[in-house]
């Protein structure tokens, strides 16, 4: 999906919500464990109940890799289900990859070509030749970790390197890479006060913003400092939506949580 198509969907649905499909078998309703593929059964129910309220889904691959082959199959079924039934949905493989060039090309093939995701999250630590292989894919986005939501973001990302915070170096340098128009960036919702500075460096880029809900980030603050003329935000919530209930009504309960966020987003868009 192109950025223009994503923006169209945001305006159509009056939502820039991304729902994180971080499926933990210890947290899903017990009756689903009797299904052949409990992870996919859970995802399918959540997607069917929430797809009109969000523009994107983000399965974090760790939650699938942890269950071995069965987990990877559930990931494959989930992305196929989305691409077949809801092609208007933007999809993010949250895999946080990045390696030497030829290896990055294989990661990119895995997520863009084999699985068919629109985007993948990538760590910038190995630099230009580890990220450009992802950027070479047309109509696919590479979502680079810039300033993350966790406490450890202060270990390296905010350290001053040659007179500037490292995350600012990442933003500025990555803009010079080949096909940088295919970049988006991760900025944690818990770091909303940094968004003003970030927007000075990358005014037009889309930001994936995780950390509302379970991690305590504030939607209003993120929008105040991070929104641009094209909206420019995908705000993710995972646990806060998908684990709204552990009973038979779990899908409806997740839709109610998603709807709460969508209504707040709609109000902001209409301001
Ligand atoms: O890349 C991410 O999506 C990500 C970056 C970041 O800085 N912080 C962060 O929480 N995430 C991911 O976003 C999701 C947040 O989940 P919840 O805290 O349950 O909403 C998880 O899949 C995290 O791995």
From TrEMBL:
Lineage: superkingdom: Bacteria
Keyword Protein biosynthesis carried by entry: no
Catalytic reaction annotation: orotidine 5'-phosphate + H(+) = UMP + CO2
Keyword terms: Decarboxylase, Lyase, Pyrimidine biosynthesis
Gene Ontology MF: a single term: orotidine-5'-phosphate decarboxylase activity
The keyword Lyase belongs to this UniProt entry's keyword annotation: yes
Enzyme class, spelled out: lyase
SUPFAM superfamilies per record: Ribulose-phoshate binding barrel (SSF51366)
Active site per database record: 96 (proton donor)
Domain spans labelled Orotidine 5'-phosphate decarboxylase: 16-254
Pathway this chain belongs to: Pyrimidine metabolism; UMP biosynthesis via de novo pathway; UMP from orotate: step 2/2
Enzyme Commission number, as recorded: 4.1.1.23
Family the UniProt entry places it in: Belongs to the OMP decarboxylase family. Type 2 subfamily.
Listed name of the protein: Orotidine 5'-phosphate decarboxylase
Organism name: Winogradskyella vincentii
Biological classification of the source: Bacteria, Pseudomonadati, Bacteroidota, Flavobacteriia, Flavobacteriales
